């Protein structure tokens, strides 16, 4: 009798609506997801980050199933199936951490599975859950569906992406190829170095202007655009790659090096390693080598940026990196995501390597600085770059932004700075 009373009491006190149970499980799942993805996997491999994300989604679905079974009159036992599949898959990925080649092969398998799973979940949702609780589960199904559809698009897009060098060519630099695109004739040749995550197309507004006066070359760093991957991607590795590329491409030095944003530290690292190969330099709103001390907010910004960069390969794998960052197709592949992550991770080392260049002597230097939207300390750090050369000048563009100096209305001013250094290098006169 007591047992029956207890059972009846439990049935009477069980809320009919599954909404509270679903809300609680989703909140707990969100916390678990943040802990897994950002806390444990933010500095791991692509497989570990992806595995953590899958495990987090599986745990969230599992919590939802358990909560509705224990606390609701509408138990959603069917949620246990996708929870088990996703959670187990994530755990296997996180533990085994297969390489990129294995992930590329798996890219043909898991997206269709997720799409089928999302369709099955919709059918189960309609059959088993009524009321407002449906709208709490729909976002989880949408995540599965978007990942599956995006995964198909990313896998097919990567497989069918053109490797045709276009106006440039692929050059072997030792078992792998880098893409370089040159135009114009004469010397000294101008070498364009893009910022983090950018590739040769970033210079489309500047290179044609410079090509009218001399040879100008833009290239894709390892992992970006048409270039093959390589690790590590610190300043010295990038400098060595570029030096080999120019030699094997037959681009004679010395060069006028042009670096935008984090490309500034990269050309400084090149000049420190190969001083005789440098005829002049243009730093286009370049990151200072002492960014961690000269810019008060940079250390905290970098920590968050590095954590976000760890997600880039995973976001690229499910096809959402391009729409999030507004990137072109060849900049949003898993390879480009890994290259971006590696460059961000290696940035402190690259800055230290850039600091090895303390003087260009009297080689011409122009510092192009944007004045709009900059963080504290940036303007002063830009001015201090002038000390790198005894023949230097700063072009301070008050209304320019960090990107407009190469891709926007202020690109002509940057092109003119390059031409001015070119004239100074050719004539042996001070830059004006």
Write the layout of secondary structure elements.
Elements: H1 2-13, H2 19-40, H3 46-71, H4 80-96, H5 100-106, H6 110-128, H7 134-160, E1 169-172, E2 177-183, E3 189-193, H8 207-211, E4 216-220, H9 235-249, E5 255-260, H10 263-273, E6 278-284, H11 291-294, H12 298-309, H13 312-317, H14 321-325, H15 334-354, E7 365-370, H16 378-384, E8 392-397, H17 404-407, H18 411-427
Parallel strand pairs: 3-4, 3-5, 5-6, 6-7, 7-8
Antiparallel strand pairs: 1-2, 2-4
Helix pairs in contact: 2-3, 3-4, 6-7, 9-10, 10-15
Provide an overview of this structure.
With 432 residues, the protein is an alpha/beta fold. It has 2 domains: 16-158; 178-427, Rossmann fold (3-Layer(aba) Sandwich), CATH 3.40.50. Helix content is 55%, strand content 11%. It has helices at residues 2-13, 19-40, 46-71, 80-96, 100-106, 110-128, 134-160, 207-211, 235-249, 263-273, 291-294, 298-309, 312-317, 321-325, 334-354, 378-384, 404-407, 411-427, and strands spanning 169-172, 177-183, 189-193, 216-220, 255-260, 278-284, 365-370, 392-397. Helix 16 (378-384) links the parallel strand 7 and strand 8 (392-397). The longest helix is centred in the middle third of the chain and has 27 residues, at 134-160. The chain starts with a helix and ends in a 5-residue tail after the last helix.
């Amino acid at each position: 009798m007591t047992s029956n009373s207890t059972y009846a009491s439990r049935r009477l006190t069980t809320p009919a609506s599954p909404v509270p149970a679903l809300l609680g499980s989703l909140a707990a799942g969100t916390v678990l997801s943040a802990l897994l993805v950002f806390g444990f996997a933010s500095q791991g491999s692509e497989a570990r980050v992806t595995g953590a994300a899958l495990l987090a989604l599986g745990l969230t679905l599992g919590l939802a199933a358990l909560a509705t079974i224990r606390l609701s009159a509408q138990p959603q036992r069917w949620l246990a199936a996708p929870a088990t599949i996703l959670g187990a898959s994530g755990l296997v990925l996180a533990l085994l951490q297969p390489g990129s080649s294995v992930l590329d092969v798996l890219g043909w398998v898991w997206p269709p599975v997720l799409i089928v799973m999302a369709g099955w979940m919709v059918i189960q949702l309609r059959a088993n859950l009524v009321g407002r609780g449906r709208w709490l589960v729909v976002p989880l199904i949408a995540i599965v569906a978007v990942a599956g559809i995006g995964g198909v698009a990313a896998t097919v897009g990567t497989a069918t992406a053109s490797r045709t060098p276009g106006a440039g060519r692929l050059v072997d630099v030792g078992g792998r190829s880098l893409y370089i695109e040159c135009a114009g004739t004469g010397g000294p040749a101008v070498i364009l170095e893009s910022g983090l995550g950018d590739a040769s197309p970033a210079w489309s507004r500047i290179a044609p202007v410079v090509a009218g006066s001399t040879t100008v070359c833009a290239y894709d760093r390892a992992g970006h655009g048409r270039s093959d991957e390589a690790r590590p991607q610190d300043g010295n590795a990038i400098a060595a790659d570029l030096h080999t590329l120019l030699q094997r491409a037959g681009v004679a030095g010395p060069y006028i090096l042009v670096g935008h944003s984090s490309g500034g530290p990269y050309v400084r690292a090149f000049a420190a390693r190969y001083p005789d190969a440098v005829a002049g330099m243009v730093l286009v709103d370049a990151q200072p080598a002492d960014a961690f001390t000269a810019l008060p907010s940079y250390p905290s910004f970098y920590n968050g940026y590095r954590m976000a960069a760890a997600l880039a390969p995973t976001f690229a794998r499910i096809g959402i990196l391009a729409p999030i960052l507004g990137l072109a197709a060849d900049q949003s592949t898993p390879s480009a995501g890994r290259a971006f992550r590696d460059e961000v991770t290696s940035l402190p080392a690259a800055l230290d390597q850039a600091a090895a260049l303390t003087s260009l002597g009297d080689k011409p230097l122009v510092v192009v600085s944007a004045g709009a939207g900059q963080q504290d300390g940036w303007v002063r750090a830009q001015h201090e770059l002038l000390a790198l050369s005894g023949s230097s000048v700063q072009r301070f563009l008050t209304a320019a932004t960090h990107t407009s100096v190469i891709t926007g209305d202020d690109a002509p001013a940057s092109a003119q700075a390059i031409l001015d250094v070119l004239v100074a290098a050719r004539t042996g006169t001070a830059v004006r």
